[in-house]
Amino acid sequence: MDYQLVVKFWRKSLDDENFVATIQDELKEALGESAVLDGYDISAKEINLFVITPDPKHSFRRVKAVIENRGTLRGVSAAYRLVGGARFSSIWPLRATRKFNLP
């Protein structure tokens, strides 16, 4: 069973507009063959990175390590859903109180 992990970067928390382009190689290396980067979308307020994975929590731990090394974890939220599904389960931040949505 495959899941879509969505990692949301709030643009106001990023120093560099080319952040996603520069982090993709690091993420591919961290994820290895356990997951596949499935692209991203950019809006005025956020950048959403998509990962297809059989284990979204494990994949997020790997992604989180890369993000922490870059010092941008505070501007991130993440959730997952079944591929093709509509309902997200939030996994970051741990105390998330609002509903995770895509634009």
Primary descriptors:
103 residues; alpha+beta; Alpha-Beta Plaits; 5-stranded antiparallel β-sheet; 33% strand; globular
Written description of the protein model:
The chain has about 100 residues and is of the alpha+beta class. The protein has a single domain (about 5-90), classed as Ribosomal protein S10 (Alpha-Beta Plaits). The chain has 2 helices and 5 strands; from the N terminus they run βαββαββ. Strands 2-3-1-4-5 form a 5-stranded antiparallel beta sheet, with helices on one face. α1 crosses α2 (about 55-70). The chain is globular and about 35 Å long.
**Strand percent estimate:** 25-35%
Spans where pLDDT lies below 50 across 5 or more residues: none
CATH class: Alpha Beta
Count every helix, treating DSSP H or I runs of 4 or more residues as helices.
Answer: 2
Please tell me the CATH architecture by its name. 2-Layer Sandwich
Mean pLDDT: 87
The domain count comes to: 1
State the fourth-level CATH superfamily.
Ribosomal protein S10
Considering DSSP H and I runs of 4 or more, what fraction of the residues is helical?
Answer: 25-40%
Strand order of the largest sheet: 2-3-1-4-5
| Secondary-structure class | alpha+beta
CATH domain fold name: Alpha-Beta Plaits
In whole angstroms, the N-to-C terminal distance is 25 Å
